[in-house]
Each structure stands twice: as C-alpha cells, then as structure tokens.
Amino acid sequence: MIFNPTIDILPLVFGCVALAAMLYCCFPALNILRRTGLLRFSESSDGEAIAACEAPCPKVSVIVYAFTGEEGLAEYLEALMAQDYPDFEVILIYDAGAAATAVITDRFTPLYPSLYITFIPPGSHNLSRRKLALTMGMKAAKGKVAVTTCANSRIPSRQWLSGLVAPFVTDSNVEVSLGVSRFDFDELRGIGKWYKQFDDVMTTSQWVASAMRRRAYRGDGYNLAFDRELFFSHKGYSKTINLENGDDDLFIREISNQENTAVVVTPETTVSTLWEDAANRMWKERKERYDFTSRWLPKGPFIAAGLASLMRWVALGTSAAAIILSLPNLFVTAIIAPLLVATALVEISAYRKAATALGAIRLWWAVPLFMLWRPAGNFLFRLSRHSHRKKNFTWQRTRKK
Prior knowledge:
Helices cover 53% and strands 10% of the residues. It has 15 helices and ten strands. The strands form two sheets. A seven-stranded mixed sheet has the order 3-2-1-4-8-6-9, with helices on both faces. The chain is elongated, with a radius of gyration of 24 Å. It starts with a helix and ends with a helix.
C-alpha cells in the first residue's frame, strides 16, 4: 500500500483538532449544568432559609415600580402582602398622574394600611422613569435591605421574599442578593418562541454562572435585593443618568465585588413577568437594552461565550473535513461521529437542566442547532435594531418632546 499523507495523516490531524475543539465546547455547557441547574442557596432547603430568618432579620423595603391596571395590581399586592418574611414594608411608585394614583390609593390603603403609595411627577421626561421611580422609593424607604421589583411580576410563593433575603441573614458579608426573573413563556407567540426561550436561558445562565464564580456583572431589576446604603454611597444611578437602562446591570457591576454578592435561583424565588400581547415586543426590547449596556460591562464573559461559539463551529468544520478526506476509509468517521453525538448530548443535557430551573421549554434536537445559530442570530438582531439605539439615551426623549 502506498503511503498517502493527504489520506492517511491529514484526516487524523483534523480529527485531533475536532476532538480538542469539541472538548473545549463541552466546558460552557458543563458550566451551565453545574452552576445553573436546580440550585438552592448554600445547598440548603427553603425551610432552613426561612428558619434562619426567624432570627433578628433586617427590615426590608420592597420598592415596586407599577404601571399596571387596578385588577392586575390587586392580584399582585395580595401575593406580595402575604409574604412570610417577618419585617418588611412596601413602597409603590405608580407611573401615572395624581388622579389615577388617588384612585388606587383609595382602593388599596384601607386594605393595606402600611402600604406607601406615590407617583412620578408629570413632566419628568428627561430621566429614565424607572430609575426615577426607584430613586423616589429609596428615599422613602426605611429598611436596611431594598428589594426592587415590578407590579407586572408574578410572585411564585409566600417564601419569595424570605428566600431572596436569606443570604443577608446567613452571611454578614452579603450586601447584594441576585434573584432571577423570566418571561411568562406561554405569552410568547410565533414560530420563533422556542428560540426566544432558548436565548433567554442561555443569557441568564451566563450571568448567573459568572456571579456564582464571584464575578457578578449583571442582575435582574425585577428580582433584586441590596443594602440600601450602597445605593446612597454610590450616589444612586448618577453614573448612568444619561441612559434609560442600566439599573440592573451597570449598577450591579458598580456595587458588587467578590465578597458581597450572592445568587438565589430556586423555583420559590424565580418570578415571571407578564406582558400579555406585548410579550414578543418586550422580549426584543429587553434583549436590545442588555445588548446596548453590555458595552460598559466586563468583556471577559462575552469573549468566553463568543470563543465557545467559535469552537463549536471549528469542531463541526474540522469533523466534516476529516470525514470527507478519509473516505472511503471509515476509521476516522467511526471515531469522530460518536464524539460529535456525545458532545451534542452533553449540551442538550446541560441546557435541559438550565431550562428546568428557569421554567423554559426543555428542548432536545433543537439545542445543537440553536447553539450553532445563536452567534449569527445575535448579529442579525443587533443589525436590525441598530437604528433604535438612540432611544437608550434619556436626552433622546427630551428631543422628541
């Protein structure tokens, strides 16, 4: 037999490169599996976390940004006021005028005498309305711990507040507790709803895993707790006053460090946001605003995610080249094909664990395809929304007035 380096050596080289690339690709998936799954704070049960809160607990001020109608607000307040945390107050900032605020005050104050209700003054158009609402709430709050959320959230259990605040009770170093919110995925419509859930799971898994490695760069403003003094010592949102957003990623990046941040991911503490017919539009807007503010965040997590995507394509390309060049000899194919299948199964298993934790659809065959498509999908999304980027600045709203 005549030695042919193209047939006998090159496919094996390609096969080795493919193996290395595929193994590298496994690490992001394994990281999601290990760090995101069905996690509980400090590996403890909810009962133990709540028991810890029976000790002297910090007073909590729940600051609610509200723009929903009366009925939705009534359902939300009923769930919020039923929380089992022993010492908390609720400050409701209503994004409406004085007349509408008076109506809800007359309705809900007799039911909840401790409820504090105020509204955003008319004419406040040159600031982010959400940041303004939260700042007003911080100034009215009396608690040591501030919790920021929104009235269009669905509270999953009576233990939501206790679970979110548990890190402050069990660890004196904790000043920031990161909870998670997700879309009500049942509200998403269209053929792209599966991919939107997949993208949401991957994005959340990335920042949660980074926070668990003590490198927090993002939080979730619908489910976030922090020491109220941090807000004032960092002068609130003054560093991002020119931006509409940033209250739950740029602000977290500013106040978090390797010692003071905990992450809480449990079914009892993960809230879902309700957008009804606007769900698809709000999904796009949230993705856009996080993409916009990411320019001011650490580049490491995004570079790592991009490198993992590149390695995924390298693995596929080198594997295909090795198989084609080795034909009709099936030895290389017999080695590489099972490795490709094994890698896909690892990624599918990892994704399904993360999807379970976040209440998303547990995909099978679509996971490898979506992982390959995601870099191109993100690029096309960024391209399609480029003309909207100016609206992320508060001065743009002033110009429109």
